[in-house]
Write a structure and sequence with these properties.
361 residues; alpha/beta; seven-stranded mixed beta sheet; 19 strands; globular
Length: 361
C-alpha cells in the first residue's frame, strides 16, 4: 500500500512509498482503511523534532475511514463501520481515567513506541506511526479503542477534523476555559485549532473575540467564524487598549506552542483572568514568569490537552453542534490534495495559507 514516510527527523519532505504494510493486527486490534486525513501542525512539529517521535515514521493522526477487519475480542466496531481515528484513547483503568480526566490517559502514548508499519519487498525496515496512528497511509492498524464509530451522515473529511483540531480548539473554550458569556477573548494563532477555539468562544457567548495572526488570510477567515476583530501581532496592544481600556482580556488562548507567544498571551490577560495554553511546544522551550507577578496578578494558567475533556463525549457534542448548524466545519477545509501531493499540503501549512488541508486517500 501507499504511505507518506519521513525517513529522518529534520527532513522537510515526505517520501511517498508503495511498499508499506500495516502491521500489528491481532486480538484487540482493528484494521482501518483511511479515507481522509487532515494535516495538523503537530505533524510538522514531529517532523522537525519539536515533538518527540521515533523515526522513520508515517505522520498523520487526524484521520477517518472504515473498518476492514477486527481482531478477536473487539466488540465496539465491525467491518464496514465508519470511524474516526482517536490518537489518545482512554484505557478506563488508569488513575487519570478513574478520576474522570481521560484526556490525561497515557495508554495511547505508549503505542507511539511500537512500530505499526513496515516496508515489504526489498526492505523489511520497521516504521512507526505518529502518535501511535500514522494516517498518511491507505491503511492503519490500531487498538480498537482508537477507532470510534461515527454516524453515516458524517462525511469522512468532517470526521477527520473532529479527530484532533476541532476537538482540541472547541474543547479549550468549552471545557478548559468554560468561557463566561459577555466576556472578552483573544486567540493567538488562527489556524484550524485557533479557529475552532474562536467558534467555541462564540458558542459560549463571548462579547469580544479578537483573532491574532500574522497571516492576513487567516485573520479574514477568523472574522467569518465568529471573531469580532482580527489583528496582526503588532496590533494586539492597540486592541487591548481599545477594547479593555488597557486592562487585558478575560481569556487569552495561546494556540501556537511557543514560549514567546505564551508570554505575550500572559501579558495580554487581565489580572485575575485566564490564559489557556493550547499549542503543543518543545520540551526545551521554557516560559519565564517571575514569582511576584505570578502571585500579584492572580492569573490562571490552564493547559488544555486535546480539549481538556472526555474525548468521546466531545466527539458526540461536536457532531451535534455541526448537525444543528451551530459550528462550521466544512469551511475549515480550505485545500484538498491527494496523498501523492502531500508535500504541497506541508507547504500550505508552513506558509499559513491553509486553515486545514484535507488529504484524500
Amino acid at each position: 500500500m501507499r504511505a507518506a514516510v519521513l525517513h529522518e527527523i529534520g527532513q522537510d519532505k515526505l517520501d511517498i512509498l508503495d511498499d508499506v504494510e500495516a502491521v500489528g493486527f491481532g486480538p484487540g486490534r482493528v484494521r482501518v482503511r483511511v479515507r481522509a486525513t487532515g494535516l495538523c501542525h503537530s505533524d510538522l512539529s514531529a517532523m522537525a523534532g519539536v515533538l518527540p517521535q521515533p523515526a522513520p515514521f508515517v505522520p498523520g493522526h487526524e484521520g477517518a475511514g472504515e473498518i476492514l477487519e477486527v481482531g478477536e475480542g473487539v466488540t465496539n466496531v465491525k467491518p464496514g463501520d465508519r470511524v474516526v481515528v482517536c490518537w489518545l484513547p482512554a484505557c478506563g483503568a488508569c488513575p487519570a481515567c478513574k478520576r474522570g480526566q481521560t484526556e490525561l490517559c497515557l495508554a495511547g502514548f505508549m503505542n507511539a513506541g511500537t512500530p505499526n508499519f513496515k516496508r515489504s519487498g526489498g526492505s523489511s525496515s520497521d516504521l512507526f506511526g505518529f502518535a501511535g496512528t500514522g494516517t498518511f497511509a491507505e491503511e492503519v492498524v490500531v487498538d480498537a479503542g482508537c477507532a470510534v464509530p461515527i454516524p453515516d451522515d458524517v462525511p469522512f473529511d468532517i470526521a477527520a477534523l473532529i479527530g484532533c483540531g476541532v476537538t482540541t480548539g472547541l474543547g479549550a473554550a468549552l471545557n478548559t476555559a468554560d468561557v463566561e458569556a459577555g466576556s472578552s477573548v483573544a486567540v493567538i494563532g488562527c489556524g484550524g485549532v485557533g479557529i475552532s477555539a474562536i467558534q467555541g468562544a462564540r458558542l459560549k457567548g463571548a462579547a469580544e473575540i479578537v483573532a491574532v495572526d500574522p497571516v492576513r488570510s487567516r485573520r479574514d477567515a477568523a472574522l467569518k467564524f465568529g471573531a469580532t476583530k482580527a489583528v496582526s501581532p503588532d496590533e494586539l496592544a492597540d486592541a487591548k487598549q481599545t477594547l479593555t481600556a488597557g486592562e487585558g482580556f478575560d481569556y487569552v488562548f495561546e494556540v501556537v506552542g511557543r514560549s514567546a507567544t505564551a508570554r505575550t498571551a500572559y501579558e495580554n490577560t487581565r489580572r485575575g483572568g485566564t490564559l489557556v495554553v493550547v499549542g503543543a511546544g518543545a520540551m526545551d522551550d521554557f516560559l519565564q514568569l517571575n514569582m511576584f507577578e505570578l502571585f500579584f496578578d492572580e492569573k490562571r494558567i490552564l493547559p488544555s490537552m486535546y480539549g481538556g475533556g472526555d474525548v468521546l463525549r466531545s466527539y458526540e457534542r461536536t457532531i451535534a453542534l455541526w448537525r444543528a448548524g451551530r459550528i462550521d466545519l466544512e469551511g475549515l477545509i480550505t485545500h484538498r490534495v491527494p496523498l501523492s501531493e502531500i508535500n504541497e499540503a506541508l507547504d500550505q501549512m508552513r506558509t499559513g495559507v491553509a486553515l486545514r488541508t484535507c488529504i484524500e486517500i
